[in-house]
Amino acid sequence: MGLAAATRPGGLRLSAEEHRRLRRKARLRRELTGWAFLAPMFACFVIFLVLPVMGTVWWSLRSGGLGGETKFVGLKNFIDLPDTVGAAAAITNTLVFALISVPSILIGALAIALLLARIERGGSIYRFLIYFPVLVPGVVAALIWLFMTNVDFGLFNQAVKALGGKPIIWLGADHALTVLAILDVWRNVGYWALFFVAAIIGLPKELYQAAELDGASAWSRLRYLTLPLLRRIIFFAVVVATIWGLQVFDTALVLTSGGPGTATTTVIYRVWLYMFGATNKIGTASAISLVLIIAILLLTLVQMRLLRGRGGGD
Amino acid sequence: MAEAIGLNAEQHARLRLRRRRWKEFGRHVVLGLVAFILVAPFYYVLLASLKDSTEIFSYPPKLLPIPPYFGNYRDLLWDTGFLRWMFNTLFVATSVTVLKVFLDSMAGYALAKIDFTGKRIVFLLMLILLMVPIGALIVPLWSLVSSFGLINTYLALILPPLANPLGAILMRQFILGLPRDLENAARLDGLSEFAIYWRIVLPLIKPGLVVLAVIIFTDQFMSFTWPLIATTSDELQVLTVGIAALRAHGGANYGLWSASAVMSLVPIGIFFFVLQRQFLARSLAGALKQ
Fold first, then answer.
1. Residue numbers of B between 80 and 139 with CB closer than 8 Å to A
2. Is residue A296 less than 8 Å (CB to CB) from chain B?
3. Over the stretch A46-83, which tens digit does the pLDDT of each residue have?
4. What angle do CA A178, A181, A183 make, to 5 degrees?
5. pLDDT of residue B289
6. Who wins on pLDDT, B249 or B132?
7. Residue B255 confidence (pLDDT)
8. Mean pLDDT over each residue of chain A, to the nearest integer
9. HEC profile of chain B
10. Do B132 and A49 touch (CB under 8 A)?
11. B288 pLDDT band (50/70/90 cuts)?
């Protein structure tokens, strides 16, 4: 940058003033290029993510419907939330769903990963097969599970019949939420299994050789070496899988239409109903969305702390 | 015992080898069972799609579809908007992917290599909002997009997904890993900042770009909540929305449903087969491995 000035006739040495000016100019240039590179993506980020988050707060303090007039009502939507038809049930359903699916996914994934990491050949075939359900859109997955859970010809009841049992109404009020959670396990176990495989392969080999020389059994190697070493990774997976679990919507819509009754109506499902259903409660929809957003932000903060602690800063 | 002591090294090794083989065999049995359970639903649906409506309900079920019945596929392709949905999904997903890889890599370059005011705050904001899903924002997003007059346009489907900060964060990580000497040399050669990004950095992070493209494309292929809300016209329905409508309207048509499930998995299945490594890396990138 200084080259132009230095080669100017008679300008081999720069005065202090010129020097400062040039440095200012270079700095300005750097600022402008930095923002120019960032701007296109950042503009989208602000318009379609930051603004809507703020918009949720704004809408949550108002009453009315999407089409018509709305007015400011303060915290009324939040105070009424526990009594609003369906809102409390939606939150409970979502939490129960996450409580069933997340531990099942992660325990299953960890078990698969422990086997997959130690296998000597054929690993890529298993990885392909185990990962495939991950790529199925929720809508399609739910459609497939209609064929699993159908009372008359579903695969589950075929198996029950073959074992001599009575057909089970899988999508009835008793089982629907559990079936929805198991569907989620089917879709996500492969994702986390491969995540854990990578983590396990990255563990220091020497520790295991030492443990083997000491005659540690496979179980104690798992209990005292692998699990403690993976503690942070597992915790991270719990946080992220929970965040994902709280967003369940498409599978509930297609598999059970939120029913029977409100048995599988989840938070986002309820927001959607409030928005476009006959109820038209835009404020309540936003209030319940905000509860979800805050829960996710809190979990994100936990996750950021975890990553920071894992050495190497942000 | 005396014999045990008498074992020579070779016998010992053979014994250990045999034990190792048995363990390996056990692992294959368990993993094979797991894989079978995970894949069985696909086979069951494929089977159903090749049966006519009476056969689907018959008991005991036929485990091989002989002779196969293709009526469900014919109905799906000619009597529903399936081909249109598929086109919309591929068009939107491709547009988002191309745009986003470009925007995210530029943003990542700025965050990794250029010092400017506000960088730390921008990055922190991106990290904090990283996990906030579009599904939780549908109320304000809908009113925003409709105030732009974009409801029922392709732009409504393409623009909001560009906001996701995951790509920029990943690209920053990738670009931070490049040696500084390269760009310094380029700078001394008088290359502009954009030329450094375009001609030096991008080629170097190509593997990262492919992984990012796979992440974006699959997410877009699977996305449902926003497309459901952003469109009401049949012409603009994407695959997931169209299939949900197929389920919601027109009564239980299991043959059609199964055929649509199978057909919708064809493109992503082909992609997965071709780009296996990048897909599997998705599992790691999603977790922002540092």
1. 103-104, 106-107, 109-111, 114-117, 119, 122-123, 125-133, 135-139
2. yes
3. 999 999 999 999 989 988 776 667 778 888 888 888 88
4. 110
5. 37
6. B132
7. 86
8. 86
9. CHHHHHCCHHHHHHHHHHHHHHHHHHHHHHHHHHHHHHHHHHHHHHHHHCCCHHHHHCCCCCCCCCCCCCHHHHHHHHHCCHHHHHHHHHHHHHHHHHHHHHHHHHHHHHHHHCCCCCHHHHHHHHHHHCCCCHHHHHHHHHHHHHHCCCCCCHHHHHCHHHHCCHHHHHHHHHHHCCCHHHHHHHHHCCCCHHHHHHHHHHHHCHHHHHHHHHHHHHHHHHCCHHHHHHCCCHHHCCHHHHHHHHHHCCCCCHHHHHHHHHHHHHHHHHHHHHCHHHHHHHHHHCCCCC
10. yes
11. very low
Structure-token pair, residue B246:
């197929």
**Which of A23, A35, A38, A156 is best to mutate for the B interface (most B CBs within 10 A)?**
A38
Please determine, for the modelled complex, whether the ipTM score is greater than 0.85.
yes
Q: Which helix (H) or strand (E) holds A178?
A: helix A176-201
Tokens 């598929």, located at residue: B86
A152 touches chain B (CB under 8 A): yes
Residue of A nearest to B145 (CA): A48
In this complex, is the C-beta atom of B170 within 8 Å of any C-beta atom belonging to chain A?
A: no
